[in-house]
Design a protein that fits this description.
about 280 residues, alpha+beta, elongated
């Protein structure tokens, strides 16, 4: 990185929003179309069964959309810290900013937002994504960040996740995320089979597939939670330390997976007890 007429090398570039990505919007639209199609045929359902069918379909669609969307979200593990830190390379100028880490199954988003947002005659509001999914090279994303001249806090956090960093957290996060994503896609496939079986009135096998769906969602969570077995290197900004915790996608998947597994096991135990008596 060099100077050019006394100007630091910060280059304009597109920034990807981590909250509502294009993939998430597409998935939500697809499931909304299915929901709309079902609501159009509701008037043809007569009697008390109408309300029951509405609740079942809405719940089933919600489970399906969650199993797909969480593969693209960036809040499986989140953390943030407010700190006074250096902003640019080759400069001792300090800024007050919020640094955030948002870990998903396909990579990590690192955010930097000034407090206030306008400092040093610049707008400090960055959101950078670094991918480790199949077909992506995390180190290339990091090197691109170096060439773009990203702020020091973003590069400092991203460096902790690089493949050659002594912390060694890259491999654990990458492998855990891959297995977690694979289990979620299996849960989605079993959800489709479950709905097909219920539409064919094969209720007992449909119930088994509900159990499979819940089980693989829990397997996904177990896989991702193994990242906590690695001693996370301290991300230190002066006297402040950035710490992470499980985010909304993790807890939502846990709630749905646990509900499916618990409710079905309860029914199975009841049926077995009645059969034995």
């Amino acid at each position: 990185m060099t100077f050019y007429n006394g100007v630091f090398p910060f280059y304009p570039h597109e920034r990807r929003k981590w909250v509502f990505s294009v993939d998430i919007i597409i998935v939500i639209i697809v499931f909304l179309v299915f929901a709309l199609a079902f609501f159009l045929i509701i008037p043809g359902i007569r009697g008390k069964a109408r309300l029951s069918w509405v609740c079942r379909v809405i719940l089933s669609l919600f489970i399906g959309v969650v199993t797909v969307v969480v593969n693209f979200t960036a809040d499986w593990e989140v953390g943030s810290v407010n700190a006074v830190t250096t902003y640019k390379s080759f400069s001792n100028s300090m800024v007050n900013a919020d640094i955030g880490v948002h870990v998903g199954l396909d990579g990590v988003n690192i955010t930097l937002k000034g407090n206030p947002i306008h400092q040093m005659n610049e707008t400090i509001d960055y959101n950078e994504q670094f991918l480790w999914s199949f077909g992506s090279n995390f180190n290339e994303y990091y090197n691109d960040g170096l060439q773009k001249g990203l702020p020091n806090p973003i590069l400092y956090v991203a460096e902790k996740f690089t493949q050659n960093d002594p912390c060694g957290i890259f491999s654990q996060y990458r492998i855990s995320s891959h297995y977690a994503s694979a289990c979620m896609w299996v849960a989605f496939c079993s959800w489709i089979i479950c709905n097909i079986l219920f539409s064919m009135s094969v209720f007992i096998y449909g119930a088994y597939m509900i159990l499979v769906t819940g089980a693989f969602m829990l397997f996904s969570l177990i896989s991702f939670s193994t990242v906590k077995n690695v001693s996370f290197c301290n991300i230190q900004f002066g006297s402040e330390t950035l710490k992470t915790t499980f985010g909304a996608s993790f807890w939502l998947s846990l709630a749905i997976g646990g509900l499916l597994a618990h409710s079905l096991w309860k029914k199975i135990i009841t049926v077995v007890f009645l059969f034995m008596t």
